[in-house]
Amino acid sequence: MTFKPPNLEDIEAYVREKSLTVDPEFFYNFFEAGDWHDSNGKKVKSWKQKLWTWHRANLRRGDTHKCYCGGIGVYIAGKDDTGQAIWRCIDHKPKQRPIVTKEQAGRILKMVPAGDNRSTSDKVNTQRKLLKEKSL
User: Fold this and answer.
1) For the chain, what are the domain ranges?
2) Tens digit of each residue's pLDDT (9 = 90 or more) over 75-116
3) Is 35 left (phi over 0), alpha (psi -120 to 50) or beta?
4) pTM more than 0.85
């Protein structure tokens, strides 16, 4: 049987089903970046077994947290007034904030001429060329 890497949704579903103390995104990104090899360089044979290993390690370290609903917190959703991390379970996973607001994106898009599909470096080079010609 060959190993088939899971997707993030599979990991989240398994963590939810088994109430594990593992951050599914961190787990997925860790093994995806390492081409599904463990910290010893060995190929992962069972991602579910790795999840259980991470869960036991979290329990041993006392690295368990509670969501406001009473579930196991695996995501940090921010900090409270005292600076302590606010934890959320998978069902209350914090939404990622956009890098720019819709208003900012609209203003940025208006600054780009319609039909201008050149790369940024092409535009910069064109601007430099024009400035150089004006200074001559």
Assistant:
1) 8-92
2) 777 788 888 888 787 777 766 666 777 787 777 777 766 666
3) left
4) no
